[in-house]
Every structure is written in C-alpha cells, then in structure tokens.
Design goal:
Blueprint: E1 11-13, E2 22-25, E3 29-34, E4 37-42, E5 49-52, E6 63-65, E7 71-76, E8 79-84, E9 90-94, E10 102-105, E11 111-115, E12 118-123, E13 126-132, E14 147-150, E15 155-160, E16 167-170, E17 177-180, E18 184-188, E19 191-195, E20 201-205, E21 208-211, E22 219-220, E23 224-232, E24 236-241, E25 244-248, E26 254-259, E27 269-272, E28 278-282, E29 288-292
Antiparallel strand pairs: 1-29, 2-3, 3-4, 4-5, 6-7, 7-8, 8-9, 10-11, 11-12, 12-13, 14-15, 15-16, 16-17, 18-19, 19-20, 20-21, 22-23, 23-24, 24-25, 25-26, 27-28, 28-29
Length: 293
C-alpha cells in the first residue's frame, strides 16, 4: 500500500526584522534574529515580542542558539555574550581562544567553543580546557583534516568529513574521552545518532552504540533527495526531502509523513518547537509558515 502523506494547514506569519535572519522556535512560538534584535511571533497569533541583543552583527562562527530556543550566545568585544530571550538577562564571559571556528550553547548558558583542533567549555563556575584533540584526516582530501564542531551536554565535540573514521569526544572530569563513531553524527540537543554509511544507524548511549529499528533513506521515491536532518521535539528527528518530510522517533521509526509547503525546486528549511507539536518552514525568500501537528 502506498504511504499517505499529510497536508498540514500551514499559516504564513510576518516578522518585522530582515528576511535573512536566523529562525528558530521555543515553546511559545517562532523567533527571528537579525542585526542586534530578535522578534517573537506566538504560534496561534497574539502580541509580538521583541528582544534586543548586545551584539549587532553575527554569523555562523560567532553566534549560536540553544536547542530549546531560550538562549542566544554571540561573540563581540572579545567576550562570549549570552542572552536569555525571555528576560533579556545578559551574561558576559571571557573567550578561551583569540578567535572561534564553532560554538554551541545549552539551556543553562554553558558554552562549548572550538578553535582549530582544540575545544573548551565555558560555564558559570569557570573554564574547562582548552583540550587539544587528535582530529582525523578528511576522507576526500587526505592532505587536510576533517572539520571539528562543538557539541553540548555529554558531548564536547565531533568531526565531519572523515566518513568511517569520524570521532567524537565525551566530556569528563579530566580530559575528554575519544569515541569512535564509524560514520556521520546527527544531533537533537544532547542526543546523538550515527549513520554507519551502508550499515544502518545506531543511537549513541553512555554505554556505547545501540542499533535502532528504523533508518533515514538518502531519497524518498516521488519526493526527492534527502536535504537535511534536523531536530524534532525532545528526542526525534526531521528528515527533510525536496518535497516532503518524515518525522522519526528516537528509534528512527517514521511517525508522520508530511508534504512540505514549498514550491517545486524552492526547498527552504523545516524546524520544530521543543515539544514537537509545532513545525515552522522558512522559504528560500525568508518567508515563514507554521503548522500544528
């Protein structure tokens, strides 16, 4: 029997900041941040919220948003600047590196930062690290190293580009613990899955990898190629294809199959609120649509 794909009731919303800003969700609605300000639109309509940010400009290397959309971290004036969006509280902490290649922030304001082949974690109690890491070579261009990215929670950092030689590092009370992954890492907050190339998927636990029942295919017949894999709710993932999306649980079993609201060839990006009850879709022109599940 052919699978049925749901057509959700997508509703366009209007934001007053630039259409090129970062878009993310918290429990109450959708945020868009750009040029030193964030604007909030509730899921079901209502008053628009606005929160100023201390740093005017940001890019992917010097700003990050916590998984549940409660905090934004920026880099300016030689400091890590962490803003709590609900209250406007701002905390400034010292940068452990002269410049950054990547960073992540969690809901408690803990920031993990990467520079070249080193990682450090900045907390309210002080600095953990920096720790020098042994990064594997890039699988396509062995003269170069794989890329190193910051993580959160039990994970400090992970690599991308080494294929079956990908590794990650767990946080510990002393030096980080290296963990061989064997494939590319996928994240939803502190939860990690690994795609073992042609050998399926595993979920990474404290005791090691655990096989999962489902999988995410590289293509979806009739709906195009896999574009991205993004967080869904607290512990699931969204597999976004060219004209559809699959919502999968922690075992990678498909729970919902949805048509996405984009026109053919205009892919955009899909996202979820922390509970997984709402979705948002950012079109390539910056317009935003939301839908309840």
């Amino acid at each position: 029997m052919e699978a049925t794909f749901e057509a959700l009731e997508w509703k366009d919303i209007v934001t007053g900041v630039s259409a090129s800003g970062d878009v993310f969700a918290d429990a109450r609605g959708v945020w868009r941040c750009e040029d030193g300000a964030c604007e909030h639109r509730p899921w079901r309509g209502g008053d628009v919220g606005r929160q100023a940010l201390p740093c005017a400009a940001s890019n992917d290397d010097n700003s990050a948003i916590s998984p549940a959309g409660t905090r934004v971290v920026q880099v300016c004036d030689g400091k890590l600047v962490i803003t709590t969006l609900a209250t406007g509280e701002v905390v400034r902490r010292k940068l452990p590196f002269p410049e950054l290649d990547d960073l992540e922030v969690d809901e408690s304001g803990v920031v993990t930062v990467v520079h070249e082949h080193s990682v450090a974690r900045v907390t309210a109690k002080g600095l953990q690290g920096p720790f020098a890491l042994e990064v594997p070579k890039d699988a396509i261009t062995p003269a170069n190293f794989a890329s190193l990215y910051a993580a959160s929670g039990p994970w400090l950092a992970y690599t991308h580009g080494a294929y079956e030689k990908e590794v990650a590092w767990r946080a510990s009370t002393s030096a980080p613990t290296e963990v061989a992954l064997g494939g590319g890492a996928l994240f939803n907050g502190e939860h990690m899955w690994v795609s073992l190339m042609t050998s399926g998927y595993v979920r990474m636990t404290e005791s090691g990898p655990v096989a999962v029942a489902g999988r995410i295919g590289a293509g979806l017949p009739g709906y195009g190629l896999l574009l991205s894999v993004l967080p869904w709710g607290a512990d699931g993932l969204i597999a976004q294809y060219e004209e559809a999306a699959l919502l999968v649980d922690r075992e990678l079993n498909t729970r919902r199959q949805l048509h996405t609201p984009n026109a053919k060839g205009d892919y955009g990006t899909i996202g979820s609120d922390p509970s997984g009850a709402w979705l948002f879709f950012v079109h390539s022109d910056g317009k935003i649509a939301v839908a309840a599940l």
